[in-house]
Amino acid sequence: MPGPDTPPLRLGLFGGTFDPPHVGHMVTAVNVRHALGLDRVILMVANVPWQKEGSRQITPAEDRFAMVTAAVADVPGLVPGRNEIDRGGHSYTADTLAALANEFPGAELFTIVGDDAAAGLHTWTRSDEVVSQSHLVVVDRPGNHVELPDDIDWIRVEVPRLEVSSTDLRRRFGDGRPLDYLVTEPVLDVIEARGLYLAGEGPA
Length: 204
Ligand code: ATP
Ligand code: MG
Hints:
By secondary structure, the protein is an alpha/beta fold. It has helices spanning 23-36, 61-72, 83-87, 93-103, 115-119, 127-133, 166-175, 185-194, and strands at residues 10-16, 40-45, 78-81, 108-114, 135-140, 154-158.
C-alpha cells in the first residue's frame, strides 16, 4: 500500500484493438509516458470493439493480447492490459477506468487517445465519465492540431506521427508486402507462430 508520502501512481491507459500493434502505437506510448512522467502505460486490449463490429473479421482477443504482450515485453514502463478481455462483452473505457481505480486506489489516471479517436470522443459511451475520472491525453500531430470543446479538460502531447495503421498492415499481409520496421520483431514472431493474418484483409 502506498504510504502518505508516496506520490500517487501515475497510470496511463492506452486502449486499442491492436490488430496488430505497430510502431505508431509504441512510439506513442513511450513518448506520452516520458512527456507526462507516467509510471506505467497499460496497452489495454479491447475485447469486442463495438464501433468496429460487423465491418470486418477481428483477430481473436487472445491473439491480439499475445501480440501486445510481445510488443511491450522489453519496454520499460509499458505493460499489456487484459481487464477488458477478462470482463468480456463490449469494451467501454469508462468501465475500464473504474476497474483501474479499484485495482490501484489513489492512482492518477490518464486516458491516452490518438487524434482520430479524440475526434470521435462524443460518440463514446459515457465519455463524460472518461473526462471526469481521468486526464484525457490527446496525441497530436505536429502542425495539425486537434481541437476539443472548451468545456473538456484535456492535455495535448505532440508525438512524431508515423503514418501507419493496423488496417494498412493487414492489407500488407494480404498482398505480401514487407512488414519489417512497421511491426516489431517480437510481434512478427507471434504472428508467425500463431499463423495470424494468413487470409489477409480482403477488399477494403
Ligand atoms: P485500425 O486501422 O484497425 O483502426 P489503428 O492502427 O488505428 O487500427 P487502433 O488499435 O485502432 O489502431 O488504435 C489504438 C489507439 O492508437 C487509438 O487511440 C489510435 O488513435 C492510436 N493510433 C493508431 N495509429 C496510430 C499512429 N500511427 N500513431 C499514433 N497513434 C495511433
Ligand atoms: Mg483505429
